[in-house]
From TrEMBL:
InterPro entries: BFN_sf (IPR036104), Bi_nuclease_dom (IPR003729). It comes from the Bacteria. Pfam families: BFN_dom. Residues 5-142 form the BFN domain. The lineage of its organism: Bacteria, Bacillati, Actinomycetota, Actinomycetes, Micrococcales. This is Bifunctional nuclease family protein.
């Protein structure tokens, strides 16, 4: 099955956390939560990648370009653009991703680590997608209070929910998501 045949869901980064072993985790959630439970996908990443994602998501400047800044500049300088990134599958607890580029010679799809894909699209503003199968295999449900479902998001409540999810991460291992 090609990537075009895999059903995907648009997602966004809702935050970064650290598990009980001090391993960084990037948290993704679908853009259109709707009513009912929200799914969060935790993807364990390296420390450097977590820092790069954090810089991009928070719109921070660095004194020197990070690797993902260099990737963005390199792509721009050769006339290529990133159209999107897809977290395509999870195998034996390892997540896989692809970058879709437009180049002067036409479209190109590159295999990459999800952390690199997330760091790059967070800088560029390109969309990020997760395969529905990844959401069902690795997603964690968060119950939504029906009274809060129609309200505007409260930043303090969002922080509380991320803190609650961090507590969940204290008790979970990456091996829990192996197929």
């Amino acid at each position: 099955m090609t990537l075009l045949e895999v059903p995907v869901v648009p997602v966004r980064v809702i935050g970064l956390a650290v598990d009980s072993r001090m391993q960084p985790v990037v948290l993704l959630t679908p853009l259109d939560v709707g009513d009912g439970p929200r799914v969060m996908v935790p993807i364990w990443v390296g420390t450097q990648e977590a820092a790069s994602i954090s810089v991009a998501v928070n719109g921070e400047d660095t004194p020197r370009p990070l690797s993902h800044d260099l990737m963005r500049t390199l792509l721009e300088s050769v006339g290529a653009s990133v159209d999107r990134a897809d977290v395509t599958r999870i195998e034996d607890g390892t997540f896989y991703a692809e970058l879709r580029l437009t180049t002067r010679d036409g479209p190109v799809t590159l295999d990459c680590r999800p952390s690199d894909a997330i760091a790059l699209v967070s800088r560029i503003g390109a969309p990020l997608f997760v395969a529905e199968s990844v959401l069902s295999d690795a997603g964690v449900l968060e119950e939504v209070d029906e009274d809060e479902a129609d309200d505007e998001p409260d930043p303090a409540t969002a922080e509380e929910k991320v803190a609650e999810f961090r507590r969940f991460l204290d008790d979970v291992d990456p091996e829990d998501f192996q197929g």
